[in-house]
Amino acid sequence: MKQFKFPEGFLWGGATAANQMEGGFYEGNKGLNIADVLPGGKERLSILQSPGFNFEIDRDKYSYPNHEGIDFYHRYKEDIALFAEMGFKVFRMSIAWTRIFPNGNELTANEEGLAFYDRVFDELHKYGIEPVVTISHYEMPVNLVKEFGGWRNREVVTFFERYVNAIFNRYKNKVKYWMTFNEINSGLIMPIMGLGFSIQKEEDKYQPTFQAFHHQFVASSIAVKACHEIIPDAQIGCMILYAPVYSYDSNPKNVMYALQEERFFNYFCADVQVRGEYPAFINRFFKEHNIEIDMKDGDLELIKEGTVDYIGFSYYMSRTEIKDKSDLENSQGNLIGGVKNPFLKASDWGWEIDPEGLRISLNQLYDRYQVPLFVVENGLGAYDKVEEDGSINDHYRIDYLRGHIKAMAESIEDGVNLMGYTSWGCIDLVSASSGEFSKRYGFIYVDKQDDGSGTLERKKKKSFFWYKDVIASNGEKL
User: By its UniProt entry, which PROSITE patterns does this protein fall under (predicted)?
Assistant: First the structure.
């Protein structure tokens, strides 16, 4: 069996998001965020992909699993000790914007929220684990959605700037790895979570979407510049959802269609944040869809000055495209569309499994940008069974992760500069797309069920011990 070697200092760890695990709903003077108003269960995905959501809580109709999450807010010491037992070098997490500015537009930060993350960071450092912090991970204050219209409103840039300055100054001695917006390009398919608004039924979706993107690009550049000034030894990256796009066949029309889809979804946001300018290919799209971006004097210069240090990205699946889909089966599980790839198997939720696609992705990204890369999300959502003796034999998760880690190792041999790997949902949490507990990703099982029952007890799965060996051997023992 081939032995793989990862670079010295490779950043092994796991990834989570505050809104999917913390709980502590309204505790510590926390405000209401977007995830707090999204119901759990099968309804969530249709809400995310349909127009007209009102951002209200309706407890008579829905359940809201994010309100309790897995109670990391009270159990973070227990969980971090388990991460340390696995040997994590880093832990990717997010700061909940509404813990720092409950309504988003306050003039001063909430001390209770700031102090909570002080305690979390101190606990991580106690074990030698470096936090990797996402500044905005689908946690926009609902007040900014209702009062200002989310990121389509330029005023939100000012509120975001106040937020980032507060956390950079507070945590400048505790956090050295940052990312601005989680899966920023997901706003193209799910603007509710990423851009903070729901497209209205009578509204053309492109104009407000790309205006909101522009405001996020400006805000990201402001954050990058502030980070470099306040924490000179820190690194700050962007974060994109990446899925390589394959042409269904060798018909040049389908190859061109796949290329256009790939550039539009995978590269548009990254081009702006990494290269510091709007890509040439987007101009034709703007022209054909009558999109006019309202820019302030100096915006393009600011974007050019505020480019990121590295690219963080999520990789779960590839995507297969054909111009005329009428005679082919759609790949139902893939949130980003496409047709079924006959060469790939799928997860319990229909997400196509493609380890080789991760190697392709890493090579494509590095060839295009020549900046360090960081795989900050990758994992298998699956049903897990607790045996009578309490064990959880998630060999399918081990197989999935082993294939993707091998793909990373091959890409490093290809010459890719890869910083690290944080497996998504290293501890079971609430699924972002479905609002379910049963869609489990973790090395650590949490006794919480879709009907709200459960003790929240933590159990180590078989993959816990496997990943511990992977980290201890720096990827040689797979």
Answer: GLYCOSYL_HYDROL_F1_1 (PS00572), GLYCOSYL_HYDROL_F1_2 (PS00653)
